[in-house]
Design a protein that fits this description.
mainly alpha; Growth Hormone, Chain: A; 2 domains; 14 helices
């Protein structure tokens, strides 16, 4: 594996950690800035929404910029924004700086995946993408605990300083390893990119990511209340989240390996079936609540890992699929796929919360299972259209 691949993995880890780190420092940040935790939590919402809106625009408008130049500029601004965030004492100034950092992430993260896919040998495209995607998984697994540890060691401001230092290190790694980045890509007119994105197989594949992510993240987001209702007198949250994190790491790598061995289409099917089995199995166990026997408790934890396995295996396979089928709109399709991930997370939180407010946690998992089934149907429709053509 080339060294630039691991430089981009580290850059992805830094960009995505900046989103998730807030969850670990929320109480200290809100107290220091004199705002409620609910208001401080909007820093996450604004960051995610900014990426979702800016990524496709950046992908379509920055194609001629050399990738190493793009990453250097965005990481530099990103580092400055995080240093300023560490120094500010005003909530709305911090909000503006979060938007600036998110714009940098939105411009770079889809380009990281698109460039990786373009440079990867055809037989290893899945594995190359999965390695970079480890940065996303690592951010989810490490972002919250890292922010918490740094906050306890110094203050919440230390988390932003650490991310700024990480961004500068990522620049050094990129500048020393991306030696084959001679120029930017050929500029493709926006009209041609939009036509490519509007093709039913591409549009449906993008929809698969949104719906599947909504289902998987709905089950993950409301895992804590689900466990509290299903398993009385057992503290399983930490174990379940840890096991799910391991399942996520395994899923990313499995998705890449399978994409290279059996193709992106079959890997997507495998990932969706795995995700559906995890969600449906969890709901079935819920129907027998309260769960009081050790075997059923172990099964419940294992099903959470299976969900994560399927959800994260889907990401590299979809990215590889879009990079080879979207034609002139490949970069924009990958950017929209990134936006779709954030949109799915937003939908998961809103819809899952509404269901939980009127029903029990089991209904949330049932809804998640339904969404995964809809995603499978969308993908079946996309492959059927492709076959007919």
């Amino acid at each position: 594996m080339p060294r630039w691949l691991f430089a981009l993995l580290f850059a992805a880890l830094i960009f995505y950690t900046d989103d998730y780190v807030i969850a670990g420092i929320l109480p200290e940040l809100s107290e220091d800035l004199g705002v409620s935790e609910a208001q401080a939590g909007q820093l996450v919402t604004v960051f995610s929404l900014t990426i979702a809106l800016s990524a496709p625009v950046a992908a379509m408008s920055l194609t001629r910029v050399r990738r190493s130049t793009l990453f250097t500029v965005t990481l530099t601004i990103f580092a400055c924004a995080n240093l300023a965030a560490a120094a500010t004492s005003h909530f709305w100034a911090l909000m503006a700086l979060r938007v600036l950092a998110a714009l940098c992430a939105g411009a770079s993260t889809p380009a990281i995946f698109a460039w990786t896919a373009a440079q990867a040998p055809p037989a290893k495209i899945g594995r190359y993408i999965s390695i970079v995607a480890m940065g996303v998984t690592g951010a989810i697994a490490l972002g919250v605990p890292a922010g918490t540890l740094i906050t306890h060691a110094v203050t919440w401001r230390g988390s932003f300083v650490t991310l700024a230092i990480g961004a500068l290190l990522a620049i050094a790694m990129i500048r020393s390893t991306m030696v084959i980045d001679g120029r930017g890509e050929e500029e493709v007119p926006v009209s041609r990119q939009l036509r490519a994105l509007g093709k039913p197989p591409v549009a449906l594949a993008l929809g698969v990511n949104v719906v599947a992510m909504s289902g998987s993240m709905m089950a993950f987001t409301y895992l804590a209340p689900f466990l509290s209702g299903a398993v009385p007198d057992h503290e399983l949250r930490a174990i379940s989240f840890a096991v799910s994190g391991l399942g996520g790491f395994a899923g990313v790598w499995m998705g890449g390996v399978l994409t290279d061995r059996i193709g992106a289409l079959r890997t997507i099917v495998t990932a969706l079936v795995t995700l559906a089995v995890g969600c449906a199995g969890t709901w079935i166990v819920w129907l027998g609540s309260p769960v009081s026997t050790i075997p059923l408790i172990v099964l419940l934890v294992a099903l959470g890992a299976i969900q994560a396995l399927g959800a994260f295996a889907l990401s590299p396979a979809l990215t590889a699929h879009l990079s080879t089928t979207a034609g002139d709109g490949a970069d924009a399709a990958i950017a929209l796929n990134t936006s779709g991930t954030y949109l799915g997370v937003t939908i998961a939180g809103a819809v899952g919360g509404a269901i939980l407010a009127g029903c029990d946690a089991g209904a949330v998992v049932a809804a998640a299972t339904l969404l995964v089934g809809i995603a499978a149907g969308l993908f079946a429709a996309s492959t059927r259209i492709t076959a007919d053509r």
